[in-house]
Amino acid sequence: KLAQKLLLSLEILTESEIVEDWLIEAQLRARELDAGTVQPISAEEVRRKAQALLR
User: Fold this and answer.
1) Considering 11, 29, 35, 50, which has the largest number of Cβ atoms within 10 A of its Cβ?
2) Domain boundary assignment for the chain
3) Structure pTM?
4) What pLDDT shows up at residue 10?
5) What are phi and psi of 39, to 5 degrees?
6) Number of Cα atoms under 13 Å in the Cβ half of residue 44
7) From the first residue on, what is the mean pLDDT of each consecutive set of 10 residues in the chain (55 residues)?
8) CA–CA dist 35, 29 (Å, integer)
9) CA angle, 20 as apex, 11 and 28 as ends, to 5°?
10) Where are the alpha helices (DSSP H) in the chain?
11) Cβ pair 12, 20 in contact under 8 A
């Protein structure tokens, strides 16, 4: 029941809105990397951490 309420509360976006939101997020992350405010993490490291969380 809780999951159903949460799903119903989600904002419904069009595909073009989703693409636009991801583009904005990608631009933000690129600026953060360029500014040196965040450090990149390799896909391999992300995969290892995700697998460890699932164990």
Assistant:
1) 29
2) 12-54
3) 0.63
4) 83
5) -110, 140
6) 0
7) 85 90 97 98 97 95
8) 10
9) 105
10) 2-9, 15-35, 43-54
11) no
